[in-house]
Design goal:
Strand content: under 5%
Largest sheet: none
Helix content: 40-55%
Number of domains: 1
Number of helices: 3
Number of strands: 0
Radius of gyration: 14 Å
C-alpha cells in the first residue's frame, strides 16, 4: 500500500481530501499517481482534481511536469483573476 491508496479510496467514496506540503516539483507526480489510481479503480463517474497554486509561476511549475508524467491528463489552467483587468 502506498500513500495514494487511502486518498483514492476516500475520493472514491465521495469525500474530499487536501494534500499539502508535497516537495517542490513532486506535486505533479502526486496528481498523476492519484489520477491513475482513480482510473484503475474503475471510476464510473467523472472525477475532478483541483490543484491550487500560490501564483502563476508555481502553477506552470505544476503543469509542465504533469504534461511529462501523464500527458493523457487534461489540464485546465485558470489564471488568477484578482489582478486581471
Amino acid at each position: 500500500m502506498n500513500f495514494v491508496d487511502p486518498v483514492a479510496r476516500r475520493l472514491g467514496q465521495g469525500g474530499a481530501v487536501t494534500l499539502a506540503r508535497a516537495p517542490e516539483g513532486y506535486d505533479s507526480f502526486v496528481v498523476a499517481d492519484l489520477t491513475h489510481a482513480l482510473a484503475a479503480a474503475g471510476e464510473t463517474r467523472a472525477v475532478t482534481l483541483v490543484v491550487v497554486a500560490r501564483d502563476g509561476m508555481r502553477a506552470q511549475n505544476i503543469i509542465d511536469p504533469l504534461a511529462f508524467a501523464a500527458p493523457e491528463i487534461e489540464v485546465l489552467h485558470l489564471p488568477s483573476w484578482d489582478c486581471q483587468p
